[in-house]
């Protein structure tokens, strides 16, 4: 399927009729001002248009390495991150573009990072899997499945040690739940009552292996073994994500209670762009993907609810989408026009000390040739 | 000057830094209530309380990763590995996350974490507990690796390590924990990356670190007494950063070099050193650079044979005589 066709899905006519989400009136959503709701829709659309634009750039060989697209999962990151307070922190795995935009990162440095440019959020040193912005409490962007989850517990440890009321959201995919490091982090979080919510974004497939073929039992229910609370949330409905996550985040912030939450979602594209779409996919059908697009697309679901609530008009929806596409295009232009890092930049950002020579206390050689 | 053990020197460094900086926390298996598997942290729980001295479950990947995450927020965790040999179960956290996160974030993050514990053979605990991973660790840009040989060095280097803003891996030695030595009182810091000439000499330079410093000093005494050979012993103390200048100054004096390390030969620290010395001081050398390492096999259990597998004074003496032949 071409990216152009993918991008037109929200405008299909055979979508379910506009109706308010049953979660629209949940406590987490009831107080949302209309402008805030529009902002949430805008963020989801910015993620989708950014990623579609990045895919085109990848196909044009502007981007190297891996590109794990989040398209179809937007309500998860946007819903969760929209609940963040100032002492709340986020860490995630390699499918990290959505979370970066959801915490407020600008598109230009993100696209530039994909292009490997010095103006990228990680100066072209991290790439698609390694977006970071500590100023927005966003701690990456980590490439090894499950490897970021102990770090997430550590963010929670830091919050608690410093006596702050905050929560760390440690995102992982459904493929990560069988990694030992994840279970070690679960145990530590429960043992020490760390304010962390482990969020399993279950898109059904750990790469090309379905949940049924990779994981025994119910994913979040494993929390019971550690005495933690758990829940399952519909990740296609942004309101449901907010409504479902809010009590877990509050319990973590207020009572330092950890939890494991599974958010059920779906990715339209392959695991990475190297994973072909049907009919060349070996593990799922075009019909399956089309059914999700038709009935459960998170942008369409939210848009429908906003239309039914009278918050959104079709004209405004179109305007937001047009602006998102334009912003994505601008980011590609920005990335294209930006300089690459230089060979001289290779050995910067390795050690804090060599980046702060006036404050260096150690002696001797830190680099070798 | 007070005489204390290597174990006490590390404990004093921890206590002083815990008292100085409220962000410093000590975490690890058995560090609190049990007082440390090797009693290094004895008394710290009683003095600093359970918020600062924390027993972890046997869960190295979990707690090292957790410490690393906390360090990103400004906590300064000093994590004890009961044995550095257990680094393999936390490899991803130590060498993918700790070593790389600053770089991958374009310098936005730094991780002021110390991971410390013993890394040595010689105690008949077999291959799984006798790893000396300083070469593996030091081959990762982004980390620092320190291997102190004496009580004074252990204290001064650990205090510097705790104040360092980069990840520092601090490799101790179970056999050295009882070693006594003079340690200055008070806030004495030894910078990482500064080698120390432990014995001056004119005929041969032995470059070494860790427990092999003691063996080399013993060999040097025998060489002086029995063969009238004057050996200079250079203790690197820190593998990364590395003080090559002190090594080269010694080479310029003696013109012969033996590198001694409790490492397997292949891709060991000595291999890198030998390369650097020949490149920088080729014209100073009167003989090929020699290495003495652990015999290249997994650590044997059999106690008498393990002594011969590791560098020891007699093996060092023989290797030195070969360089001078």
Keywords:
heterodimer; A: 369 residues; alpha/beta; Rossmann fold; 14 helices; 8 strands; globular; disordered N terminus; B: 325 residues; seven-stranded mixed sheet
Task: Give a concise summary.
The complex is a heterodimer of chains A (369) and B (325). By secondary structure, chain A is an alpha/beta fold.
Structure explained in plain terms:
The complex is a heterodimer of chains A (369) and B (325). The N and C termini of chain A lie far apart (47 Å). The longest helix of chain A has 26 residues. By secondary structure, chain A is an alpha/beta fold. In chain A, a hairpin with a 2-residue loop joins strand 5 and strand 6. Chain A has a 6-stranded parallel sheet with strand order 2-1-3-4-8-7, sandwiched between helices. A two-stranded antiparallel sheet of chain A has the order 5-6. In chain A, helix 6 packs across helix 13. Chain A has one domain: Rossmann fold (3-Layer(aba) Sandwich), CATH 3.40.50.970. In chain A, 56% of the residues are buried. Chain B is of the alpha/beta class and 325 residues long. Chain B folds into 2 domains: 180 residues, Thiamin diphosphate (ThDP)-binding fold, Pyr/PP domains (Rossmann fold), CATH 3.40.50.970; 129 residues, Rossmann fold, CATH 3.40.50.920. Helix content of chain B is 38%, strand content 17%. Chain B is built from 11 helices and 14 strands. Chain B has a 7-stranded mixed sheet, with helices on both faces. The longest helix of chain B has 16 residues. The mean pLDDT of chain B is 98. Chains A and B meet through strand 2, helix 7, helix 8 and helix 14 of A and helix 3 and helix 4 of B.
């Amino acid at each position: 399927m071409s990216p152009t066709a993918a991008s037109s899905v929200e405008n299909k006519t055979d979508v379910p009729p506009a109706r308010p989400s049953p979660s629209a009136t949940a406590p987490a959503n009831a107080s949302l001002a209309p402008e805030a709701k529009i902002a949430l829709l805008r963020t989801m659309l910015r993620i989708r248009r950014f990623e579609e634009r990045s895919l085109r750039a990848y196909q044009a060989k502007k981007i190297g390495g891996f590109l794990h697209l989040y398209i179809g999962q937007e309500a998860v990151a946007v819903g969760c991150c929209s609940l963040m307070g100032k002492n709340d922190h986020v860490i995630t795995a390699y499918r990290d573009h959505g979370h970066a935009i959801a915490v407020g990162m600008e598109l230009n440095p993100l696209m530039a990072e994909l292009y490997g440019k010095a103006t990228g959020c990680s100066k072209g040193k991290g790439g698609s899997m390694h977006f970071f912005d500590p100023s927005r409490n966003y701690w990456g962007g980590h490439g090894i499945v499950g490897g970021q989850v102990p770090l997430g517990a550590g963010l929670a440890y830091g919050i608690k040690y410093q006596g702050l009321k905050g929560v760390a959201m440690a995102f992982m995919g459904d493929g990560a739940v069988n990694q030992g490091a994840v279970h070690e982090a679960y145990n530590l979080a429960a043992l020490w009552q760390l304010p962390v919510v482990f969020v399993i974004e279950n898109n059904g497939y750990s790469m090309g292996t379905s949940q049924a073929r990779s994981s025994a039992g119910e994913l979040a229910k494993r929390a019971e073994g550690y005495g933690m609370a758990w829940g399952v949330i519909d990740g296609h409905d942004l309101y449901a994500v907010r409504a479902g996550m809010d009590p877990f985040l509050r319990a973590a912030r207020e009572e330092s209670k950890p939890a494991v939450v599974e958010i059920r979602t779906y990715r339209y594209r392959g695991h990475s762009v190297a994973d072909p779409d049907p009919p060349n996919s070996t593990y799922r059908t075009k019909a399956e993907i089309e059914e999700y697009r038709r009935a459960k697309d998170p942008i369409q679901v939210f848009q429908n609810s906003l239309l039914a609530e009278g918050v959104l008009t079709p004209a405004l929806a179109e305007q937001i989408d047009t602006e998102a596409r334009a912003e994505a295009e601008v980011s590609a232009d920005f990335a294209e026009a930006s300089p690459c890092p230089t060979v001289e930049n290779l050995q910067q950002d390795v050690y804090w000390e060599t980046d702060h020579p006036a404050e260096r206390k150690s002696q001797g050689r830190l680099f070798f040739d | 000057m007070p005489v204390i053990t290597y174990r006490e020197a590390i404990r004093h460094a921890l206590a002083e830094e815990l008292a100085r900086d409220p962000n410093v926390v000590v975490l690890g298996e058995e560090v609190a209530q049990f007082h440390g598997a090797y009693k290094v942290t004895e008394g710290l729980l009683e003095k600093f309380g359970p918020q600062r001295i924390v027993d972890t479950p046997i869960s190295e990947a979990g707690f090292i990763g957790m410490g690393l995450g906390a360090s990103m927020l400004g906590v300064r965790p000093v994590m004890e590995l009961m044995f550095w040999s257990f680094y393999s179960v936390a490899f991803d956290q130590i060498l993918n996350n700790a070593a790389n996160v600053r770089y991958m974030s374009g310098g936005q993050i730094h991780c002021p974490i110390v991971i410390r514990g013993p890394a040595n053979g010689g105690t008949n605990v077999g291959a799984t507990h006798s790893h000396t991973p300083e070469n593996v660790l030091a081959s990762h840009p982004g980390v620092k690796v320190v291997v102190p040989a004496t009580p004074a060095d252990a204290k001064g280097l650990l205090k510097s390590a705790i104040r360092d803003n980069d990840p520092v891996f601090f490799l101790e030695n179970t056999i050295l924990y009882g070693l006594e030595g003079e340690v200055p009182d008070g806030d004495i810091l030894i910078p990482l990356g500064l080698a120390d000439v432990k014995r001056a000499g004119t005929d041969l330079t032995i470059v070494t670190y860790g427990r092999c410093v003691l063996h080399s000093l013993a060999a040097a005494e025998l060489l002086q007494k029995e063969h009238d050979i004057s050996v200079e012993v250079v203790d690197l103390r820190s593998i990364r950063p590395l003080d090559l200048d002190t090594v080269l100054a010694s080479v310029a004096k003696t013109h012969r070099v033996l590198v001694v390390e409790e490492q397997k030969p292949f891709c060991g620290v000595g291999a890198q050193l030998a390369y650097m010395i020949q490149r920088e001081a080729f014209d100073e050398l009167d003989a090929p650079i020699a290495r003495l390492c652990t015999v290249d096999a997994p650590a044997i259990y059999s106690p008498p044979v393990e002594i011969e597998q590791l560098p020891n004074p007699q093996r060092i003496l023989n290797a030195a005589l070969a360089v001078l032949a």
